[in-house]
Structure formats: C-alpha cells, structure tokens
Amino acid sequence: MNLNKALLVINVFFLQAYLIRFNIGPYPSNLQEILIGLNTLAFIFITPFSQIMKSLRKHWVILILIWLAGLSMIFVPMVSELDLIRHSKFLLFASALSYIFLETFKEEKERMAGLRIMGVGAIVFGIFSVSYNLLGYNVTHDLRLLGPLDAAVYLAFYLTPFFIYLSIQAFETRDKSFVTYAVILAGLIIATRSMGAIGGSLVVMIFYFFKRSNLKFLKSKFNKALILIISLSIIGTIFYSKIQPTLDTEYSSLDERSQIWLVSREFLKTPKTAITGIGFGQFQQHYFDNVKDILNSEPLDYYVLQPHNIFLLFIFHFGILGLVFIVILMHKTIIRLLEFKKIDSQIIAGFLLLYFFIHGMIDTPIFKNDLLILFLIFTELSLIKTRNKLS
Length: 391
Hints:
Helix content: over 70%
Radius of gyration: 21 Å
Shape: globular
Number of domains: 1
Mean pLDDT: 89
Number of strands: 2
Number of helices: 17
Distance between the termini: 28 Å
Strand content: under 5%
Strand order of the largest sheet: 1-2
Low-confidence stretches: 387-391
C-alpha cells in the first residue's frame, strides 16, 4: 500500500478527526484538515498534473458546488466573515478528499472496500461515543447518545448511511459479519433517538426490499410480518416522541423547526433572496439578526446553523441555481435506483444518498466536516460514470 492509499484509509476511517482542534500559529485548524492536507500532497506527488486536470472535468458535482459557492461570494453581501471562512474550509477539504477517494479507489472492489472501512470507522466511533457518555462527558438531560459531538442528530446522520450499507450487504451476501455490524449500528442509532435517522433508514430499506423482491428473506410470511411490525413500531415511536409533544407543548424539536421554517419563509419573500440566496454560509447570522423581529417573541433558539431542510439549505447558500442543482441530483438518484438491475458500489451509494435526501427534509447538517465529505463521496460515486461502467 503506497502512502496516498494509507493516508486515504486513515482519513475515511477517522472522519471525526476534526473534533481534535488546535491552532497553527493564529490559524485555527484540526487533525482532519492536517490529514487531508497530507493526503493531498501524497496524491499530487504520484499523479501527473495533466492527469489531475483531465480527471477533474468529470467530477461535475464537486466543480458545480465550488462554482456556486464562488458566485455566491461574488454577488451576495457577506454578513459573517467567520462563517464564510468556516464553510469555505468545509467545502475545500471535503472536495479534496472526495476527489482523492474516487481517483484512488477506481476499481469496484476498492470502492466497496472503501465503504466498508468507513462503516467500520463509524462503528468504532459509535462505540467510543457510548464510552464517552458513560464516563460522564457531554451527557444530555434526556440521555441521548451523542459522544463528543454537539448534537445527537449529527451522530445519527453519520452512523445511519453505514447501517444502510451494511444491511444491504448483509442481505446481498449473507455474510454474518455484515449482519453483526448492522445490528451494532442499529443499536447505536436507536440510542441517539434521532427519529429522522430511524425513519429515514426505514424508508430506504423498504425501497430496497421493494426493488429486491426476489430476495429469499422476503418470501417468508414471518419475515414480512416482522418488517411490518418494526415499521409500525417506528411510526408509532415517531408519533409519540415527536408529533405528540408538538401538539401538547411548545418546546419540542418540531416546534423549533416550525420557527426555523417560518423565518425561512419570510426570507424567501424577498425576491433577491429567492434568486441569489442569503450567501454561502451566512444563514446562522441572518437567522440570529432577524428571528426575534419576525416571530415577535423570543425564539426557542437564536443560534441555528442551517435551515433544517435540504431545499432551503441549497437556495439560501447558492440561490435558485442551488435549488435547481439539488433537484437534479435527487432526480438522477431516484431514476438510477428505479432502473438498476444489480447491486454494486454505485447503487449502494445511491441508496445512501437517498437517505441524505429523506433525512434532509427535516435536518441539514450536510455542511459540517464529516457529513459534507460523505455527501460528496456518495453523490459522486452514485452519479459519476467511471471507466468500469458501473451500472
């Protein structure tokens, strides 16, 4: 294994390395940025410049996102320089690692191995998070699993794609190790109590079962009944843990989201905002400055990083072009999943991307270090044709 591949394996296994923060002189950085920087240097050292420039052209998802961010920086006034720098770093390092992943792991076996490495890394971090909370660090009042992260939903958003990946692999290969990994992740996700993650993974897996109706697992009446019972249990849990508190109180997570969406709707009433957005990485400052005046009361939260909806996320970051872009990605993903004939890394990435879209209806932590990396890798892996012509 050469240095580039070794660093890439380390990077995708330790995606949460951004939590180890420090300063390099006056420059705030973290371990993830250092690792990606070293990986980039190693990749450049072994790859001719002409080959890099030629291969860059096919990675249209990354290029369009960078282009949209650049347009936003040019045409939309900045209100928070710190947030702009932070989001620019997210996009820069995520783009670099995603590009290196796809240009290093070009063969089908390599890409499947890369997904498995990321999945095992997620399990290790999930188990570490359990130990972290059990030792008394960063414990929430409602005892949700979040480890060293600042929200349980972020942990769930990170773990769930790999639960879906490992579950699909378990059904496709009947490998007991995949079953074990999937069960461990299921327990960790349940411990986060993220209904978006639990419900989103259920929808994706039902869609997978629908497309793979020839699986022997689905021919058993007992297994069909089991799936139905699990589905109804999850739907009931979502109702009683999220919807019922919203009806009975004014302090549920859905109440907070309703305030965020109300403020977002007011932003979109301005024609300029609907066309150009409010600026790349600028939502939190705009929300903080306007939420009280819009609601005419104290909000449940002043500090909201993202608008908790993937359509709002892209239109606020990039304007109407961003909205068109995410709709195109969704359309291409759904069409590919409806038409596929066999399971490979591209199709699995499509299912993982579908989960991001579904959960993204109520949460949008995509523009964070680890999750933006996953979003870009899954999107590029799912939608970019390779020399191997993966179906």
